[in-house]
Amino acid sequence: MTSTAAKPTDSDALSSRLIRQLRSGIGPLFAALVIICVVLSITSPEFLTTSTLTNIMVQVSVVGIAAVGGTFVIITSGIDLSVGSLVALSGMVAATLMAGSTPDNIGLGLAGLAIAIAVGAGVGALNGISVAWLRLVPFIVTLAMMAMARGLTLAISDGRTKFDFPNAFTAFGAKSVAGLPAPMIVMLVVFLIGHVLLRKTTFGHQVFAVGGNMEAARLAGIPVRRVIFLTYTLAGVTAAIAGIVLAGRLNSALPSAANGLELQVIAGIVIGGTSLAGGRGSIIGTFIGVVLIGVINVGLSLLGVNPFWTQFIQGGVIFAAVMLDALSQRRKN
């Protein structure tokens, strides 16, 4: 009588994936998030309430949405410093078109959404062309784009805030669905799409290959330049979506909007376990990293910590994350 091996069940596959995630570093990060939440709930009882937790998700929504595209870029060993300025620019271009319109102008609202995303995709594509085909240094290219996009935002607005947009545009930042704020829902949807794209598609596998060893990926037949181009374009699209959400939340577009956002985006990505050296990272890790920053910010505020110290602590967390990543790379080498 011959014995046959039992086929793995769905629960076994789920358990295996969970174990792999824990070993990848997401487990300790999630544990740190839980521990911080427990400590804050003890020291500040109002922390562990539905309103506070929802508020945290809304506060990190703009950073989180932009961080999804940024994760793809950093996994390819690139960097995008223009994301904050692009959030402002995409929102301002759409706002300039729609400023002063009536709330029920659906057509103009949809046009504003399309234009904002087109601006984000266009600027992201320009970054991608510069890095992939012109072979310029990502840090320098996106630093220059950060200045140009911010300057263009100020020029378009003449330094003034734009108000009054159609409901079709502001809905993504101001409305609620089944009691849940729209920014939170948009962020979760973008994270879900990003996770599927990174883990379940050929493009996602190519992103890891390019970041792990660009020359080996090229020899394996992977279109390296196209992959890099698409990651920067994707980062531009997610920045535009973040700009739409931000403008909707405020029902206005500010020339100084998202100033310094790029640092928060990179912090969330790096804290989430994505290596600045490329080849390693996850959307789930980025989500936990972004939420962790939001929890720290809100928690310190509830505890009455001086906002200046909050910024210092944020910097310390980023420094620790980068240092741990560097030590991990050294052990591998």
From TrEMBL:
Q: What is its main location?
A: membrane
Q: Which CDD domains match?
A: TM_PBP1_transp_AraH_like
User: Mind telling me which Pfam families this protein's record contains?
Assistant: BPD_transp_2
User: What's the protein called, per UniProt?
Assistant: Ribose import permease protein RbsC
Q: Which residues cross the membrane?
A: 25-44, 56-74, 81-100, 106-129, 136-157, 177-198, 227-247, 283-302
Q: Which UniProt keywords apply?
A: Cell membrane, Membrane, Transmembrane, Transmembrane helix
Q: Where in the cell is it found?
A: Cell membrane
